[in-house]
Automatic annotation (TrEMBL):
Organism field: Vitreoscilla filiformis
Pfam families: CTP_transf_like, NUDIX
Name of the protein this chain belongs to: Cytidyltransferase
Domain Nudix hydrolase: 225-362
Cross-referenced InterPro entries: Cyt_trans-like (IPR004821), NUDIX_hydrolase-like_dom_sf (IPR015797), NUDIX_hydrolase_dom (IPR000086), Rossmann-like_a/b/a_fold (IPR014729)
Gene Ontology MF term list: transferase activity
CDD domains assigned: NUDIX_NadM_like
The entry's keywords: Transferase
Domain of life: Bacteria
Gene3D superfamilies cross-referenced by the UniProt entry: HUPs, Nucleoside Triphosphate Pyrophosphohydrolase
Length: 367
């Protein structure tokens, strides 16, 4: 006799929902048809608003609720998830969030739960690695997701819809929305229409145009460009960290580590010291900086920067000073200040690119 697969206890659905479109809703209903409960993992949570991540995870969760029937919504729980810049840690946090949402506090119960995984993430190599890591840590079975034959493949609509939203920012809002309406549930249409009248739309549209022009300038390069940058993580006494607020797009006004692009004729080390001095006015002898080094790491996730493929080398310095020395913003920074390390978790959604994750790597903020 053929073996009958045991019924699922729950389905886990992972997506970005930027914005929520009909393909996502079809995926949600597919997950709900497979199991009595669905845990929606909202990817790219806790990020600052950018053209790639214009909507907060709370806004996306609300859109999902409003796009389902009350009976369907009652069976759905939400788990916000950070960007997968560190895959093993990301998978551990997703697993724990899902188990908490299902009330599976006992590890034996968790191991015996029959959980299926539905992913609506983009079909990129980095996302395939996410699925492999998560399944390796959980044993969850992967369910098929051919759920939206009337739409282009699932990764495309979100990106295309965002492109349309920001490329037509100078048109009347109703006209811009009309070009997207075929792909959006009613709740998303109503939300986006109101959101376009709010404070974020014009700012992100301006940043989108800057990035479009930046990418166009490299379009004729014989190979896709790979950029090299440096960042400096400076702590003092183990209690404060030196941060700037960016003065230019992308990420204007967001918190960041002091840093910038590597010049052609300098080493990574000297580029780090130069950028640190230019943006914060903090200067020491080279001997003093070498004595203060506590670590160095390369951050190379393919999607860490909206500019394009960007590898950054971060040096961590810990100053022995009894109190943080004075700093003064200059060059590309609009502000520079010492921030208590204990405050960083509450500021996570104000950081540029992956800079919170760099801090997390060295200072273990999200453990």
């Amino acid at each position: 006799m053929p073996m009958i697969a045991p019924a699922l206890d729950a389905a886990v659905l992972i997506g970005r929902f930027q914005p929520l479109h009909h393909g996502h809703v079809a995926g949600l209903r597919h997950a709900l048809a497979e199991a009595p409960r669905c845990v929606v993992v909202i990817a790219s949570s806790y990020q600052a608003r950018t053209p790639r991540n214009p909507f907060t995870w709370e806004e996306r969760a609300q859109l999902i609720r409003h796009s389902l029937s009350p009976e369907e919504a009652a069976r759905v729980s939400f788990v916000p998830a950070r960007e997968p810049f560190h895959l093993p840690r990301w998978a551990r946090q997703v697993r724990q969030g899902v188990l908490n949402a299902l009330g599976l506090q006992d590890e034996k119960e968790a191991l015996h739960a029959n959980i299926g995984l539905v992913s609506l993430m983009e079909d990129l190599p980095s996302h395939e690695r996410m699925h492999i890591e998560l399944r390796a840590q959980t044993g969850w079975q992967l369910l098929p997701t051919s759920v939206a034959p009337s739409l282009p493949s699932l990764p495309t609509p979100g990106r295309m819809l965002r492109e349309h939203l920001f490329a037509n920012a100078e048109a009347l809002p109703d006209a811009t929305l009309a070009g997207m309406a075929h792909a959006l549930p009613d709740a998303t249409q109503q939300f986006v229409r109101t959101w376009m009248d709010g404070p974020h739309y014009a700012v992100l549209a301006e940043e989108w145009r800057m990035l479009r022009d930046y990418h166009a300038a490299w379009a004729d390069a014989p190979y896709p460009p790979v950029f090299v940058t440096v960042d400096a993580l400076v702590t003092c006494g183990g209690h404060h960290v030196l941060l700037i607020r960016r003065g230019q797009a992308p990420g204007k006004g967001l918190l960041a580590l002091p840093g910038g692009f590597l010049d052609v004729h300098e080493s990574l080390w000297h580029a780090t010291l130069r950028e640190l001095a230019e943006e914060t006015g903090l200067e020491r002898s080279e001997h003093a900086w070498r004595a203060a080094v506590r670590g160095m790491a390369v951050f190379d996730h393919p999607e860490r920067s909206q500019r394009g493929r960007t590898l950054t080398h971060c040096h961590w310095f810990d100053l022995p000073d009894a109190s943080p020395p004075p700093v003064e913003a200059a060059d590309d920074a609009m502000d520079a200040a010492w921030v208590p390390i204990r405050h960083l978790r509450a500021l996570e959604d104000q950081f540029h690119d992956d800079h919170f994750h760099i801090l997390d790597h060295f200072l273990n903020l999200s453990a």
